[in-house]
Amino acid sequence: IKTLYWPFLKYQIIFLFLHNLFYKLNMYGTFNKMKPVLYTKDNILKELFTIITFWNTEQFLGVFWFFTVLFSVSVGFGFLRSIYKKVFKANNEYGFFLIIFILFIAGNLLSYKGIKLPRNIHVTCVAIFIFYAGFLFKKVEDRVPINGILALGALLLLFVNTLFGKVSMGYNTYLSPVFFLSNTILGIYFNMYLAKRIFDKKNSLLLY
């Protein structure tokens, strides 16, 4: 809540009360095929309610969809993990993996059929698979090599893949689930390498 909900709430409310000013300055374009409107008091109260309940984002902060999905993924994963352990009372990852994989397939099928669920649940079903992969990765992190050659290879493959399609997690659109997973893994690996280099650089400066 502290790292997701409060930052989301703060910036959304600020931009909500600046909405009419931005509208009068003609700063809005078409958003999700919806034309911007001048908010009345009723509109503001309605939008405020959707923001507080993590249901909606202000037009200029559309990228904040990630906060709502990550929050849903974190809560959903924790809930499923807790229920699974209580029901099966075993530290067996195979059964839990199957549950997460089924959710991943369901999210992809919903998007393929053009079905969008409230609160981006269809996106959450896909994202929870990546979240779970990160959870498993933490257990073997020390055994995974992070080096410049592999990072460069990952970056080059990402550039090559752009010739075939793109990944839009916000709209849950991509060439195929395999295309999505491969690009996600490549992107995460490259970012991990950058983070490692920055961390090493920071430590070397502190030592200096």
What would you say this structure looks like, in words?
- The chain has 208 residues and is mainly α.
- It contains 8 helices and no strands.
- It has helices spanning 5-17, 19-24, 41-52, 65-88, 93-112, 121-140, 148-161, 177-207.
- The protein is globular.
Describe the secondary structure blueprint for this structure.
Layout: H1 5-17, H2 19-24, H3 41-52, H4 65-88, H5 93-112, H6 121-140, H7 148-161, H8 177-207
Helix pairs in contact: 1-3, 4-6, 5-6, 7-8
Task: Describe the structure in brief.
Helices cover 67% and strands 0% of the residues. With 208 residues, the protein is mostly helical.
Features:
208 residues; mainly alpha
Low-confidence sequence ranges: none
Number of strands: 0
The secondary-structure class comes to mainly alpha
Radius of gyration: 20 Å
Report the major sheet.
Answer: none
Shape: globular
Note the total helix count.
Answer: 8
- Share of helix, binned: 55-70%
pLDDT averaged over residues: 83
In what range is the share of β-strand residues? under 5%
- Distance N to C terminus: 37 Å
- H and E order: HHHHHHHH
